[in-house]
Amino acid sequence: MKPAVLAVNPIDSAMKPIVITLGDSCGIGPEIVAKFFRTPASAGCFVIGDVAVMRRAAAWTGGMLAVARIESAEDALTAPPNCIPVLQAQGLSASLMQAPIGRVDERAGAAAAACIEQAVLLAMRREVSAVVTAPVHKEALAAAGVPYPGHTEMLQALACAPGQAAPPVRMMLANDELRCVLVTIHMSLRRAIDEVTFDAVLSTLRIAHRASFAWGQTQPRIAVAGLNPHAGEGGLFGDEEIRIIAPAVEAARSEGIDASGPFAPDTVFMRARHTAGHAGEFDIVVAMTHDHGLIPVKYLGVEQGVNVTLGLPFVRTSPDHGTAFDIAGSGKADPASLASAVAMARRLSSVTNLV
User: Which of 178, 200, 201, 268 is most exposed, with minimal Cβ within 10 Å?
Assistant: First the structure.
C-alpha cells in the first residue's frame, strides 16, 4: 500500500504550516497535542486554541515545554524549537479554564467550535497546508448550541461561501491495513438506513475513487459492503442490496470506477485487509453505516487510525478516538493517533488531485 510518488503542489503546500485545533479542552485533546509537540514531527505545526489551556496541558504532560503565542500562521515557521506555537482563537469564554475536566461543558464545546471555524478560514485562505482536528465531544457541541453533530458535518458547512451549496463529503477511517469510506455517519441507525439511497452510494463511490489519487492509485479496487446480513441473501433478509446498492455499483462501473459488490459486511473487511503476509483483495471498502465501517478499522488499533474527510477543498485529518473524559487531566493519553493524523495530513497536502 505504499503510494506512488506524485507531483508536489508548490502553491498550496510548500512552506505552509499545519494547524492543529484545540479540541475539547475538558478532554484529552490538549494533552495529546502537548505530547506531540515534544517530538520532532511537530516542526511546521501550530495550535489554534487557548494559550492558558495549552500551558496547563504542557504542565500535565511533564512540564519543561514552552508555549509561545504567535500572531499569524506564518509565524509558526519561525517559532523556536521545543515550544508549542499557539494562535489564540477569538471569542473563547474568559472562564474556559474553569470548565471542569472530564465533564461536558458548553464553554469547552463553544471553544472547540470556534477553533474549528477559524482553522477552516485559514485553510480556505491557503494560509495553512492542512487542518488536523483534536477530538471534540458531541454533547458539548450541542450544549453550546452548535448545529452540527460532529466535525464532518461542520467542516462540510464551513467549506463553502455563503449562499453556495456545501460540497459532498465523506468520512474515511484509515490505517496501514484498511481504508473504509462511509455512506452515512452521525445519525441514528434507523435514520441511516433511510439515508442509504442510490445517489448516496454512487456519490460515495465517486468521492472514494477520486480521493484515492492521493495514494497514487488511479484505479483503486473498491469493495462495497452490503447493509443487511449476508448482503440480504438474495432478498431474504432485506432488499436494499437489490434495489439500491447493486444498481449504484453498476452505475459506478459504467463510469470506469472499479467497484464490486455488495458483499457480506461480516467478511468483506477480512478480504480487504492488507498485512505483511496477505495482500488484500481491495484497496477501499465502502460501508453503509458508521459502525459497520469503523468497528473493523478501530479493532486493528486506534493508535494508527486516522480520520480523513474526503471531498473538502482542503486537507483535514484527525485522530480516530474521542475525548476520553475518563483519563483527561492525568497525562496518560497516547498521542500516537494524532501523530499519525499529522503524518497523513503532510502526505496528502504534498500531492495533487486530493479532492
Answer: 200
Cα 224 from Cα 139, distance rounded (Å)? 32
pLDDT in tens, 77-120: 999 888 999 999 999 999 999 999 999 999 999 999 999 999 99
Residue 294 grid cell: 469503523
On the question of a cis peptide bond just before residue 262, with omega within 30 degrees of 0, the verdict is yes
Cell numbers for 188, please give them. Answer: 441514528
Q: Are 226 and 232 in contact (CB under 8 A)?
A: yes
Residue 208 — φ and ψ, nearest 5°? -65, -45
Residue 118 cell numbers, joined:
477559524
Q: Which three cell numbers stand for residue 214?
A: 492521493
Please list, in sequence order, all residues whose beta carbon lies within 8 angstroms of the beta carbon of residue 173, skipping any fewer than 6 positions away: 179, 180, 182, 293, 294, 297, 298, 305, 306, 307, 308, 320
List pLDDT tens digits, range 205-235.
999 999 888 777 888 999 999 999 998 888 8
Q: Residue 275 has what DSSP assignment?
A: B
C-alpha Rg value of the chain to the nearest Å? 20
Of 286, 282, 303, 269, nearest in space to 171 by CA: 286
CA atoms within 13 A on the CB side of 2: 2
pTM of structure: 0.86
Task: Write b or e for each residue in 279-309: b if 16 or more Cβ atoms lie within 10 A of its Cβ, otherwise e.
Answer: ebebbbbbbbbbebbbebbbebebbbbbbbb
Quick one: 1-165+313-355 is in which CATH superfamily?
Isopropylmalate Dehydrogenase (3.40.718.10)
Superfamily holding 176-300:
Isopropylmalate Dehydrogenase (3.40.718.10)
Domain boundary assignment for the chain: 1-165+313-355, 176-300
Query: What value, to the nearest 5°, has the Cα angle with vertex 177 and ends 223 and 138?
Result: 85
Helix residue ranges per DSSP H, the chain: 29-36, 51-60, 106-124, 138-143, 151-158, 189-195, 198-211, 240, 246-254, 268-272, 290-299, 336-349
- Give Dmax over CA atoms of the chain in angstroms: 64
**Left (φ > 0), alpha (ψ -120 to 50) or beta: where does 331 sit?**
left
